[in-house]
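Sat 14:20. Reprocessing the chain from the morning session after the first attempt stalled halfway. Input below, unchanged.
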Amino acid sequence: MLLILSQRTFLTFVCFATGIGLLITTGCGGKTDPRKYPIWGTVTYQGKPVPAGTVMLEPDVAKGNSGPAVALKIRNGKYDSRREGLGHIGGPHKVRITGLSGEASGDEFFPEGTPLFPEWQTSVDLPKGPSEQNFEVPATWIRP
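Finished this time. Tokens:
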């Protein structure tokens, strides 16, 4: 009986260890996130750093690029995907920038302040690697 119990315990351990090993080496069956290239830079408006807001990078499907978008927070005129553990896929992207005052507004939709300008859009061709991209929202881009 002791020999059978030991073999059964040993087989259970081997099966368990093999299962854990497979999970570690292959993951849980999900695809890896292709957003791997870090990006950082500055965002200015009227010659000043944008206090708060968002830089949204969307692959430009019209130019043959597809994949997940990434939204990065602007803090004191700077954004950095490394700080947020994110990245981009490279290639042509549409860029949408929202700039906020950075002051508490009491508005539930804009907790980081009121909009400084209407959402500004541009496009860039990002390298397949780390990069710095600085954006200057045109001073003529004002609230209506």
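The chain has two domains: 1-30, 39-137.
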